[in-house]
Design brief:
single chain, 105 residues, mainly beta, 2 helices, globular
Length: 105
C-alpha cells in the first residue's frame, strides 16, 4: 500500500484529484505542489468539494487554496475526474520550501 506522499505525488503527475479527511473534515482536492517546509512534508491543494473549517466550499472560488501537512491526511483516495484550480494559483513558496513535484499546466 502506498503512503500519502506517494499517492499525492502520483495524483499531481497524472492530474488526478484526491479525497481525504483532514482535521475531521472530508475534502475533495486537486493537488498542485508537493514537497517540504522545513522537515514537514506538505502539499498545496485546491479544494473543490467537501467540507472545511473555513466554511462552505464554493467551486471556482480563489479562496479554496489549502496548505496541508501530508501526515495530517487520513483515508487518502486518488480519483480521476475534472481538474480544478483558480486563476490566483497560490505561490508554493509560502507553503513549501523545497518542491519535489508540481503540476504541469
Amino acid at each position: 500500500m502506498a503512503n500519502n506522499y506517494d499517492l499525492i505525488k502520483s495524483a499531481i503527475i497524472n492530474k488526478q484529484h484526491i479525497c481525504a479527511t483532514y482535521n475531521g473534515y472530508y475534502r475533495e482536492m486537486c493537488p498542485h505542489a508537493l514537497g517540504k517546509k522545513g522537515i514537514i512534508e506538505q502539499a498545496l491543494f485546491y479544494q473543490f468539494g467537501g467540507e472545511s473549517s473555513s466554511g462552505t466550499i464554493v467551486p471556482g472560488s480563489p479562496n479554496n487554496w489549502r496548505c496541508i501537512p501530508v501526515n495530517g491526511l487520513e483515508n487518502v483516495i486518488v480519483k480521476s475526474g475534472s481538474w480544478y484550480t483558480a486563476n490566483n494559483h497560490s505561490t508554493p513558496s509560502k507553503c513549501i520550501d523545497i518542491i519535489d513535484v508540481e503540476v504541469a499546466y
